[in-house]
Amino acid sequence: MTTRGTDGGRAPVAGLLLAAGGGRRLGGRPKALLAHRGRPLVEHAVRVLREGGCGRVHVVLGARAQEVRERAALPSCVLVDNPGWEQGMGTSLRAGLESLAGTGARAALVSLVDQPGIGEQAVARVLAAYRTADSLASATYHGVRGHPVLLGAAHWAGVAATATGDRGARAYLREHEERITPVECGDVADPHDIDTEADLAHLE
To answer: Whole-model pTM?
Structure first.
């Protein structure tokens, strides 16, 4: 089920937040609901996308999706349920891209809910790399590719066809490496994931 919100106008690039993870190594605590600055982490991630320049934001939910809907304030977001979230991030990416079909978006800026150290400056830098529906761009951290990733609409079908398990767009991007615009963000962001109990120290 998809809950529609306002789409922020006809901005060519939509924010796509993958927030379905169940936090298996965190004792089964959904990452979207981890506390950060006194609120669910998913709220922070949405705010980063908006402040970075994304008018329309789609959020893919999975683990305890109904609880996320009830506890997190996500006004004007399009909430997309991914019933197959336990099969890996690839299913969330496919669900998110499918939800953008027909919206007029010409690119998706993909970010992950469990990277609180990536702020609006990194989002804005990668967003600025958009040129056409054929654009591909990725944040890099001291030369290593990471998130957020900008996927032009011309690539969505190819990405969806190769997004399996926890690989997301990795296989597709590897095949099209020469077409990716790298956007260095290591000076403004920390791409650390919240995967284990020790990683919770990165939350505030």
So the answer is: 0.93
Judge contact between 139 and 126, C-beta under 8 A: yes
20, amino acid identity: A
Distance CA 70, CA 181 (A): 38
Torsion of CA 67, 39, 140, 158, to 10 degrees: 20
CA distance readout (Å), 187 to 46, 146, 184 = 22, 14, 8
Distance separating alpha carbons of residues 30 and 180, to the nearest angstrom: 32
Name 110's bridge partners: 16, 149
Structure token digits, residue 53: 């320049």
113-139 tens-digit pLDDT: 999 999 999 999 999 999 999 999 999
